[in-house]
Amino acid sequence: MSRAGDDTHRHLKDNKKRKESSKRWLERQLNDPYVKRAKEEGWRSRAAFKLIELDDRFHLVKGANRVVDLGIAPGGWSQVVRKRAPKAKVVGIDYLETEPIDGVTIFQMDFMDEAAPAALEEALGGPADLIMSDMAANTVGHKQTDHLRTMALVEAAAWFAVENLVEGGAFIAKGFAGGTDKDLLVLLKSHFRTVKHAKPPASRKGSSEWFVVAQGFKGRKDEDGKSAQINGG
């Protein structure tokens, strides 16, 4: 077979795999009770139930005054915050377009853009009580590479939390099992009083995703090692 013939054969196989994958995804969506509930209850995605279940367990949202939603699209997590803490100022960011949400300031830009942190900080108007990250890198099909890319995003979100949380604040982020989260845990344990992993019931059993929940931010330190935290109003 010619090289052109090899390429055609490979493309046909790739298309078949994509069609099979799409079919499995559609079947899973149609049979997923969380997808049905999300439509019935007005949530933008089934991911809303993950935050609801995590909040029921860890009490992250109630009483929050300022909340940052990293990777906000399509908006399910911010919907939950608006319902459970209606007076909170909520700021979200995503490179994907997100339909407006009442009471939420949304930036359509990449969180890794060097201008993104300053834009979020200015819109928030003070240190956050809660920083949430549901970000995940676009997959390239190589499991280890995809994992490393997503964990790099999670670590960037964690550093943003360390620089922008009020003392006592919380950070929650989605990650994926893969054994390369040691640096992330070291970072979080050095800045938060408690750090736990959780997999809410709404997270599909076959998924490798997990959530890290860090609570009780200890506050930033100045050059002399003294607390430099400014409490939010």
TrEMBL record:
Could you identify this protein by its name? Answer: Ribosomal RNA large subunit methyltransferase E
Q: Which reaction does it catalyse?
A: uridine(2552) in 23S rRNA + S-adenosyl-L-methionine = 2'-O-methyluridine(2552) in 23S rRNA + S-adenosyl-L-homocysteine + H(+)
Tell me which residues this entry annotates as catalytic.
174 (proton acceptor)
Role noted for this protein: Specifically methylates the uridine in position 2552 of 23S rRNA at the 2'-O position of the ribose in the fully assembled 50S ribosomal subunit.
- Name where it mostly resides: cytoplasm
Q: What Enzyme Commission number(s) apply to this enzyme?
A: 2.1.1.166
User: One GO term of the cellular component aspect?
Assistant: cytoplasm
Keyword vocabulary terms for this entry? Cytoplasm, Methyltransferase, rRNA processing, S-adenosyl-L-methionine, Transferase
Identify the domain of life.
Bacteria
Annotated InterPro entries: RNA_methyltr_RlmE (IPR050082), RNA_MeTrfase_FtsJ_dom (IPR002877), rRNA-MeTfrase_E (IPR015507), SAM-dependent_MTases_sf (IPR029063)
Q: Where in the cell is it found?
A: Cytoplasm
**Region Disordered: which residues?**
1-25
Biased segments, Basic residues type:
10-21
Question: A single GO molecular function, which one?
Answer: rRNA (uridine-2'-O-)-methyltransferase activity
- Family matches, as Pfam families: FtsJ (PF01728)
Q: Which family does it belong to?
A: Belongs to the class I-like SAM-binding methyltransferase superfamily. RNA methyltransferase RlmE family.
Primary enzyme class: transferase
Query: What HAMAP family would the database entry show?
Result: RNA_methyltr_E (MF_01547)
Residues annotated as binding S-adenosyl-L-methionine: 75, 77, 94, 110, 134
Q: Per the database record, which ranges form the Ribosomal RNA methyltransferase FtsJ domain?
A: 43-217
Keyword Protease in the entry? The reply is no
Respond yes or no to whether keyword Disulfide bond is given for this record.
Answer: no
Gene for this chain: rlmE
